[in-house]
Amino acid sequence: MQLSLSPEDQTFRTTAREWLAANVPRRRAPNDGRPARDFALAWLARCNAGGWSGISWPDEFGGRGLSQERLIVWYEEYVRARAPSVLDCTFVALNHAGPTLIACGSDEQKGFHLPRILAGESIWCQGFSEPGSGSDLASLATTGRVEGDHLVVNGQKIWTSFADIADYQELLIRTEAGSKRHHGLSWVICDMKSAGITVRPIENMAGAVHFAEVFYDNVRIPLSEVVGDLHDGWRVAMNTLAFERKTAAIGLQLELSVKVEDLIDLAAPPRGSAIAERLATLRAEAAALRAMTYRTLLREPETPSDGSLVRLCFAELAQRVNRTAMDILGADALLENAWTHDYLESYSETIAGGTAEIQRNIIAERVLGLPRVKTQ
Ligand SMILES: Cc1cc2nc3c(=O)[nH]c(=O)nc-3n(C[C@H](O)[C@H](O)[C@H](O)COP(=O)(O)OP(=O)(O)OC[C@H]3O[C@@H](n4cnc5c(N)ncnc54)[C@H](O)[C@@H]3O)c2cc1C
Questions:
Q1: Ligand 1 pocket check: which of 90, 123, 129, 376 to mutate, most ligand atoms within 8 Å of Cβ?
Q2: Cα 244 to ligand 1 centroid, rounded to whole Å
Q3: Using a 6 Å CB cutoff, which residues line ligand 1?
Q4: Is the pLDDT score of 336 beyond 80?
Q5: Mind listing the pLDDT tens digit for each residue in 141-151?
Q6: Domains plus CATH for the chain?
Q7: Which of 129, 142, 198, 256 is most exposed by smallest CB count within 10 Å?
Q8: Backbone angles phi, psi at 130, to 5 degrees
Q9: Global confidence as pTM
Q10: Among candidates 237, 241, 253, which has minimal Cα distance to 311?
Q11: Residue whose CA is closest, atom 29 of ligand 1?
């Protein structure tokens, strides 16, 4: 699929390309911990100084308010320049928390947090999943009891990406006693330095520490930190998840296209027709995914299942790309290198942000019109 770009869009492309060429850091981002935080914040601060932070946010909130076409152009140039991955520890702040505050937050919440996010001064994490409440998020059990002008929070979250280095958390909790499922929840801004929070990092099989368990023991959060109305958190959370599936996805898809080209370089000199055929298929699949992503972004009105189709195709293609790298490297894959690291990380692609099975359920119900899967 080709974009039809105006002469002004082409000028925009040149401006973006020149800025990126002059500013993209030369070294690879650290994998985790404090070094990852410092690197990501420094890069975001630099983008902000150049007017490239919050590119999809409306200008009245300090963003750049780019059209979908220009967002696509920006990300094409971004990955071409091999800028740091968009899926770093600033992802939640820029792609969930900021847009959610813009849509549902109070003036005070927006005034305090939005400039800090854009300037690369705060890291956010997402406290939604709990043990036993991942795919079935509405069953979550962490509670927030109203006591005067505070909530008193008790319970546990899990798989919270970047909890060990975050300043704030978008925290989804049950605030109405006795409520069930998606009723009686609230979306709350939680200061990660609050007394009573314990973060226990989890090491994944790639040896990286991206996520953590988070425990809340009588954590006091002012009611003024509730985003939207008290007990109306499900609506706010659905906003958050919708933002995640929108513009941020472009950067990830395009990063994958670049990775396929790197894989073709890795395979040179040619290693037989079987590998060549797989590489040709991967390149074609990456092009098809890119076309589907663009069509999804530019289609009005969007359909609710668009995000699931793109997300599922992306996750499974990313796994095939990384698996092919292992087959090309053969025994060398046993040595520690970036491809092996990415291969081990890629197992999480079909779990994070909604598992492949859940995406298939959504497609089955909303695209194919099959009967609804029953939950308890
Ligand atoms: C790298 C990574 C980062 C993450 N970061 C965050 C984060 O920052 N914040 C956060 O809140 N969460 C985060 N998560 C958690 C993620 O959202 C959950 O892992 C995901 O929603 C699945 O939930 P679960 O792990 O509880 O698995 P479960 O929901 O228990 O699922 C277990 C298995 O059962 C299948 N299954 C469940 N229900 C159905 C059904 N109805 N039909 C068919 N199959 C079903 C699933 O597909 C899966 O195979 C992260 C996860 C990963 C892997």
A1: 129
A2: 16
A3: 125-129, 134-135, 159-161, 211, 348, 351-352, 354-355, 357-358, 361, 373
A4: no
A5: 999 999 999 99
A6: 7-88 (1.10.540.10), 124-232 (2.40.110.10), 245-366 (1.20.140.10)
A7: 198
A8: -135, 165
A9: 0.94
A10: 253
A11: 135
Q: Which atom of ligand 1 is nearest to the CA of 132?
A: 26
Would you state the pLDDT for residue 372? 83
Q: Which of 355, 357, 359, 362 to mutate to test the pocket of ligand 1 (most atoms within 8 A of CB)?
A: 355
Q: What is the pLDDT of residue 190?
A: 98
Cβ burial of 75 (10 Å; 0-12, 13-18, 19+) is: buried
Q: How many CB atoms lie within 10 A of CB 27?
A: 7
- SS3 percent helix, strand, coil of the chain, rounded to 5, is 50, 15, 30
**Among the ranges given (18-22, 196-200, 265-269, 370-374), the one the predictor scored with the smallest mean pLDDT:** 370-374
295: left (phi over 0), alpha (psi -120 to 50) or beta: alpha
Q: Which of 281, 214, 243 is nearest to 97 (CA)?
A: 243
Q: Which amino acid is at 100?
A: T
Contacts with 45 (C-beta within 8 Å, 6 or more apart), sequence order: 119, 120, 121
| Active-site position among 76, 244, 255, 349 | 244
Query: Residue 268: is its pLDDT beyond 90?
Result: no
pLDDT for the residue numbered 337: 87
DSSP string, 307-345: HHHHHHHHHHHHHHHHHHHHHHHGGGGGS--HHHHHHHH
The helix or strand, by DSSP H or E, that contains position 357, with its residue range, turns out to be helix 356-366
DSSP conformation class of 130: B
In ligand 1, which atom is closest to the CA atom of 375? 41
The whole-number pLDDT of residue 165 equals 97
The residue whose two tokens read 């990830």 is 252
Residue for token pair 């079909």: 350
